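**Entry details**
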Amino acid sequence: MNDAPEPDTPKEARAAEAAAIRRRWITLGEVLAVLAVGISALTLYLNWADKQDERAEKAAESRKASSRAAILVLNADGVTDDRIVIKTTDPDQVIQSQTILFPRALGIAPVETTGDPRIEAGWFDGALKKARARAKLPDDSVGDERLPVAITTRFVVGGDAHENVALYDIGYGVKGGWIAGHSVALRGLSRVATVKDDSAQARIDARWAQLSKP
């Protein structure tokens, strides 16, 4: 008795070959589907990473811009003998109010301004002349004398409020004669350094002591 399998008929062979081809196509299709999912996931990740980088760059630029905006430098926009008009070097900075602190040797209270940044000689003219007399400084001064002050400026940039405290020198001269008397003539404004609010008075007192040495 012969138990060997009978050879497939041509029809069965063709069916078996077709089934094998279908299996290969199914396997290839699965591989392609997996690749497509992987490529899609990679594309999504790269897009997400690009957006994260873009957000980080924008945030860094925003912080830099905010930091730059908070740096305040005051200049004299116009100077007469009795008044200095103050402006910021950055036109985007809008001054809201200021507090001007003087050396204790002058014995005068801080001056507050609102919406009109300025320095007026009348605020300290008499007190400065008395302080100069006590320090034995000359009545007349043809050069540029310096009066240290601390200016606290509250200002707005792009809708954000900021505050800056800095030490400045008011440039001035003293002129006049025995009959008419002497008067202080303002010359300009010069920034010295940024200071902390709680140390501003001590800083201007120390600077006045140095500048008022005969």
Observations:
- Strands lie at 74-80, 83-88, 94-101, 111-114, 118-120, 141-157, 160-177, 181-194.
- The first helix runs from residue 10 to 70.
- The two ends are 137 Å apart (CA to CA).
